[in-house]
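Exercise: predict the structure of this protein bound to FE2/S2 (inorganic) cluster.
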Amino acid sequence: MEVVEKDKKQELKEFIDSVKNKEHGDSYLIAVLHKAQGLYGYLSREVMDTIAQEMQIPTAHIWGVATFYHYFNLTPPGKHVVSVCLGTACYVKGAPQILEAIRNELKIDFGQITEDKMFSLQIARCLGACGVAPVVMIDDKIHGEMTPQKVVDVINQYRKAEKKQ
Ligand code: FES
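Solution:
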């Protein structure tokens, strides 16, 4: 486990080095935060400290940028990550109602995790499946043509599968 964490840290440092001269200001920082979230699943205090050290900017600034964008998770994700697409195609086909149904069902808002740590919720911009909008992605699986009722059924399927394990 420790070896894996070390590898991730190394990869993050290499990424910072590789983009250092190409990007400027916060766009460079945002690219680094995306990379870190991809590696760790969320941005812990420790990860932010590493970035601060490598980029020589205050952790408080990184924290400010990370909290400004809904995309970034500051807490560990749930066992299943529910991403609701709010891209244009999904939005016009009812994504806000889908999001509302999920919020009511899981009793969390985006960026949060359910009490049982089973689900966390995030929003996404176009998951590349506009043809079957509105779309919800759970972990790596796309669920298309969602309705508020269908999305609750899908969540219940995940719950049932968990109980069987
Ligand atoms: S806008 Fe949702 S998949 Fe493209």
